User: Fold these one by one.
Assistant:
Number 1:
Amino acid sequence: MKSMASAITAHGDTVRTPIGTITVPTKIESIIGIWCYVLGGPGATTLENVSGIFDLHSDSLALEPLQLPLEGAVILTNGVATFSPRIWNCNIKGVANAEITCYVTLDMAQTVAGTCRWGLIFGA
């Protein structure tokens, strides 16, 4: 199994924000998993949440509509938080050389500097 991940990127709160593009390698035949998470930094209040959606767009693949619940975690100021993002199973064929961009839209504006990362898991 092979996989790729984006760089860590700041999210744009309630505005649909691109958080990175992944170019699928030439020898990859399919995508079998997709994941995306957002981290809310220290200082999030009880009135804030870290929820939303992520969606993928590609000019070379017919992915739309593909909107999935965003996996979220709040970083605590008083201890360690563990986190295992959800991997969404899929079977998307014919993906070699495709450029795929992930967008994040949060449900609520944040007062903290949250970040996002997303990735793909490839089949043979």
Note: Residues 2-122 form a domain with the Jelly Rolls fold (CATH 2.60.120).
Number 2:
Amino acid sequence: MTTEILNTLVTGAIWRAEQLDAIGLETESAWTEVSRLEEELARQLPVSAAEGRIARRGAVRAALKAQNFARAQDLVERFAGEDGAPRALRADLREMLKADANGLSEQFPFASKHHKPSEVQMLSNLFLQRGPFWLAAA
């Protein structure tokens, strides 16, 4: 698939996710689609190109909007570890994770009193994956 087609698909997927959000519907699957399309763009575009860096940031941002911290973290590790990845890109990607962790700490204040922000992210991700009764049994 060409980058031109992928860019068109990303634009449409972002529009769908934003529209679903605007009317209050579930958006996690829509943002996951955006993240996967951006990841495919990142595969095709080198990290040295501005468009490649934008795709990498977009893949991580969309994974976080999909509330999939594990995916976002995997993408950050992969993209930050690429040969030739600029220091600014690595810092931006890590800052996205940190900002998300701080947001979760505000969303779950009790958890943030007893856990680091990264642990709150992990617990939130487990909660989303396994449901509330798993945390009660843990």
Note: The chain has one domain: 3-137.
